[in-house]
Amino acid sequence: MLRHRVSHLRFLIVLAAAVGALTLVACENNRTKLNEKQAAEGLGLPDSQSDGNKHTLPQRCPLDELVVDPKPDTPDWAIMQTLQAALDATTGHDDATNFQKFFAQFAAGNDENRIKMDYWGRAKQHVTKYLQGDAAKGMTFKICERREEPSGETKIFIQSLDPKKSNPPYRLKKNEQGAWKITFHPI
């Protein structure tokens, strides 16, 4: 009787393994089995086709607001100060002094070392991707969108000139003195 149960149990285990294997084969992604023509031209479905070329979408910038000379009591000014400090640091000006200008735009309570490690290097590396025109003729950037958040913060999306990147959002909030300070730096 025990032998009968053991062999019945073995049969069920083998059956479960076989069903599992068949399920995996049946659920395999069909894209891996496309021939060259199907991969290049698509599967011929009415809503699916490919010309084989990679396409990039144009950058969306609905507000399209060019910032040239912002007033000091605006969030645009805080953003401009970070971009200017990063650009100056990359063009041979004193890195430590420019970092202090950059750091001064952040909300109180931020750790200086964390800002330096998390944001400063990337800001210097990517600053030119966000500047419109020749910075030697004047610093400008574009604001694509402004959003007032329920938290009291303002999100400002600036235009990225890198076609592989979306427009990054800065988050800013007024401090007790009424100055706009950065709570999140996207670059």
Topology of helices and strands:
Elements: H1 2-26, H2 36-41, E1 65-67, H3 75-90, H4 95-103, H5 112-126, E2 141-148, E3 154-158, E4 169-174, E5 180-184
Antiparallel strand pairs: 1-2, 2-3, 3-4, 4-5
Helix pairs in contact: 3-4, 3-5
Task: Give structural notes.
The protein has 2 domains: 2-41; 65-184, Nuclear Transport Factor 2, Chain: A (Roll), CATH 3.10.450. Strand 2 and strand 3 (154-158) form a beta hairpin. A 5-stranded antiparallel β-sheet has the order 1-2-3-4-5, covered by helices on one side. The chain has helices at residues 2-26, 36-41, 75-90, 95-103, 112-126, and strands at 65-67, 141-148, 154-158, 169-174, 180-184. The chain has 187 residues and is α+β, with helices and mostly antiparallel strands. It is built from 5 helices and 5 strands; from the N terminus they run ααβαααββββ. 38% of the residues lie in helices and 14% in strands. 22% of the residues are buried.
If you average the pLDDT, what whole number results? 84
Biggest beta sheet summary: 5 strands, antiparallel
**What is the number of strand segments?**
5
What global shape is seen? elongated
The number of helical runs is 5
Number of domains: 2
The helix-and-strand class reads: alpha+beta
The CATH architecture of the largest domain comes to: Roll
Strand content: 5-15%
The radius of gyration is 28 Å
Keywords:
single chain, 187 residues, alpha+beta, Nuclear Transport Factor 2, Chain: A, 2 domains, five-stranded antiparallel sheet, 5 helices, 5 strands
Summarize the entry for a quick read.
The protein is an alpha+beta fold. The protein is built from five helices and five strands, in the order ααβαααββββ.
